[in-house]
Amino acid sequence: MYHIDIISIQPQLLTGPFDHSIIKRAQQKGLLEVKVIDLRPYGSGKHKQVDDYAFGGGAGMVMKIEPIANCIEELKKHRSYDEVIYLTPDGEQLNQNICNELSLKKNLLLLCGHYKGIDERIREHFITREISIGDYVLSGGELAAAVLVDSIGRLLPGVLNDETSALTDSFQDNLLAPPVYTRPAVYNDWAVPEILLSGHERKIKDWQYEQSLERTKTRRPDLLE
Ligand code: ADE
Fold it and tell me: At 151, is the secondary structure helix, strand, or coil?
């Protein structure tokens, strides 16, 4: 079973995303296990402090080294991780290749940051990989962690059936997916492309490939380079 632990100071943000649809089913089928670990109990002192002022001033609050280090050390006593991933806007940008690659691992530990980031020494000594979900800043790593879990979870063998197979997703062959239609065949004079109703499997496949290519050329020419 694939296992993902997520360290967070806002575990409530992660109560919803994994309890529905495909990721819920993956867990019910015993193919995936996701656990959210609250960092707060690892905080320092009476107030369980997890952040502090930045040395050198400015920059706002920084997440402290001890709570995170203690939490990671504790988790590592029970499990060995293939990757310890920090979600951060300055990480490598997530794409389908990275999702595919990570789906072949077994145990991941994800660390969600907050405030102005985490003490750099955590990144140097504990983190094996840093991932961003795009060039914009979220208020914390939790939503990014949810994106990562979802994009990995759906790739695990047995999670999707043939019809929803991840092999036909956009990006799997560096092409965007073709347009899709369902009933009714005509709505308000707007007809579905005739070829799709022809039953001509080979021609339909060709048409879909043409559409994928066209769509990629106009919307994401960078994928074709
Ligand atoms: N934390 C804050 N912003 C983020 C982003 N864009 N990707 C990953 N983690 C983040």
Answer: helix
